Amino acid sequence: MSAPSQPSQDTDRDASGGLSSGAMRAAHPPGALLRWAPGLHTLLNYPRAWLLNDLVAGVALTAVLIPVGMGYAEASGVPAIHGLYATIIPLIAYALFGPSRIMVLGPDSTLSAVIAALILPLAGGSVERAVALAGMLALLSGSCSLLIGFARLGIVADLFSKPIRIGFLNAIALTVIVGQLPKVLGFSTKADGLVERATLLVQGVLGGKLNPVALTIGLGSLALILLVKHYRPQWPGVLLAVVGATLASALMGLNQTANLSVLGSMPQGLPSLQLPWVSWHDITQLLPGAAIIAVLSFADTSVLSRSLAARGGYRVSQDQEMLALGVANIASGLFQGFSLSSSASRTPVAEAAGSRSQVTGLVGAAAISLLLILAPNLLRHLPSAVLGAVVIAACLSFADVPGMAELYRLRRMEFVLSLISFLGVAFVGVIEGIVITIVLAMLVLVWNAWHPHFATLVRVSGQKGYHDAQRHPEGRSVPGLVIFRWDAQLFFANAEIFHQQLLRAVDRATPPALWVVVAADAITDVDITAADALAELHEELSQRGVVLHFAGMKGPVKDRLTHYGLRDRLGADNFSPTVGRAVNVYRSQHAVDWKDWDEQ
Length: 600
What we know:
By secondary structure, this protein is mainly α. It has two domains: 48-398, no CATH class; 453-599, STAS domain (Transcription Regulator spoIIAA, 2-Layer Sandwich), CATH 3.30.750. Helices cover 61% and strands 5% of the residues. It has helices spanning 21-25, 31-36, 38-44, 51-75, 81-97, 109-123, 127-150, 162-185, 194-206, 212-231, 237-252, 254-257, 280-312, 318-334, 346-352, 359-374, 384-398, 401-410, 412-428, 430-450, 495-508, 528-544, 555-564, 567-570, 579-589; strands at 105-106, 341-342, 454-459, 466-468, 481-486, 515-519, 547-551, 575-576. A six-stranded mixed sheet has the order 4-3-5-6-7-8. Strand 6 (515-519), helix 22 (528-544) and strand 7 form a beta-alpha-beta unit. It is elongated and about 100 Å long.
C-alpha cells in the first residue's frame, strides 16, 4: 500500500488562520511515522486559530457520544460501559492515523446486530465471555481491515451493491428495533435472531410485563428525538431526551417507586489494556463475521470520508482510511471495546458545531475520560428505556423502505436481490444472509455475462450510425451484408451462444448473406475457448461462402488474437476500424443496388 500524500509543513494560512488547502495537500512530512499517521502531522502543525472551534465541537459531540455509545453497547450484547470504552480509544487512534480531519469513529448501529449475532450464541449467557468475544471480534475485524488496506483490496466493498445494502440495513434495523422494544416497554429479554426476539416481545406484553412508566419515558424520548431531528435539527435531541429522563428518574426515584430499570453505577476509571482470551474454536467462529464487519465498516467509512474531504477541499487515501479503521478496531479490542465504524450521525454533529480537525475527537475522548474518572455515577439514574429509544431512533434513520419500493419499480431483479438480503439477514442469520445474497449477486452477474445483449444492426434514415433492428423495424439493411453486434467480452461461457446467434442472423438474411460484420466495439477480451469458437465459426462460414469481418475491435483484443495466431487465420484484411468503413469495403467489392439515405 502506497503511503498517502500528506499536508506540507509550510505555514501558509487561509483567512481563518488555518493551513490553506494548497498547503495541506502539498505535504511531504519527515519520517515513516508521519507518512502513515496523517493526523499526527496535522496535530504537530496545529493552527491555534482552530482551537476554540474544536473545543466547542468536542463538547457538543460528547453530549451525543455518551448515550449513543452506551445504547449501541447494550444492543451489541455487552454492558453499556463498554460502549464508552469503544469510544475513547478509537477516537484517539483515528486522530493519529485517520486521513479525514473531522471523521468520528465509534460504536455503530448497523454493526450492533452483527456483533450480537456473532458473540451471544458463543457467550452462553456469560457477560464476561461476551465482553471477551466482542474484544476478539474487534481484533479480528481490525486485522482484516489492515490486510485489506495493505493489499489494496478495498474494492471488495463493491460486492455490497445498493440492493444488497438496502436489504441488509432494513433487516438490521428491524432486528435491532424488535430487540430494543422490550427495553422501552420496561422489561428485558435474552434472545437470538428476529423470530425469537419477536416471540419473547409478544409473550412479555401478553404476560403483563409492560411497565407504564418505562413505556411513557421510552416513547416520549423517542418522540422527542425524532421531532427535534425533523423540526429543529440543529438542537441536540438525544441530549435533551437523556438529560430530561435522567432528571425525572432521579428526582422522583422512579427506579424504586416505579420499578424502573436504570443504568446504575459505572466502574470508575479508564479501560485497562487486556488481551481478550478466547478459544481457538471461538476465533474460527468469529473470523468470517470479522471479515464482513471489516468490509461493511470500510464501505460506510469510505463514502463518508470522501464526502467530507470534498466539502473540506482536501483529498484522502482510501487505503489509509482502511489502515486507520483497522488500527482503531484493534485498539478498541485491546481496551475492552468492540467493533466499530464511522458514524454518519455523530460526524455531522461535529461538523455542524464547527469542528476543524481531529482535536474535536480528542476533546470528546478527554471529556468521556473525565466523566469515568471524576463522576462515574452521574448517569446512574439514566433509564434503560431511553437508551433503547436512542438506538431505535438511529435504526429508523438508516432504514430505507422507500428504497426497496423504488427498486421494485425500477428493476425487479435488483429488488429480488434486496428482498433476499432482507429475508436472509432477518430470518436465517446476519452472516449467512449476506453470504447467500452475495453469492446470488455473483450468479446474476455470471448469468448476464453468459447471456449478454446482442443485436442485428440496420441503417435508419436521417440518423448517423447503425442501430438495433428490433428497435427500428423501419431500418434498411445492405443486401448480402449482416451486421451483428455483441455487447460483452467473449469467453468460455458465452462463446457457443455467440456462435449460435450469429449463424441464426446469417440464416435469416434476405437475400443470402455474403458478408457478416461483427461490430466488436464492446468486446473487451477473447479467451482461449472463445478463440477456438471464432476459428470454427470462420471455417463454417467459409464453407458457406460467407466472409467473417470485424469492425471496431480494440487494439488490445486484436493483439490477443495475434498472440493466439488467429488474426492471420481470420485474415488481416478482415478487420476495419469502424462499421461504416466495413460497409464501404463490402460495397466496393460487391455491386449492390443500394444507396444510403445521405447519398439519395
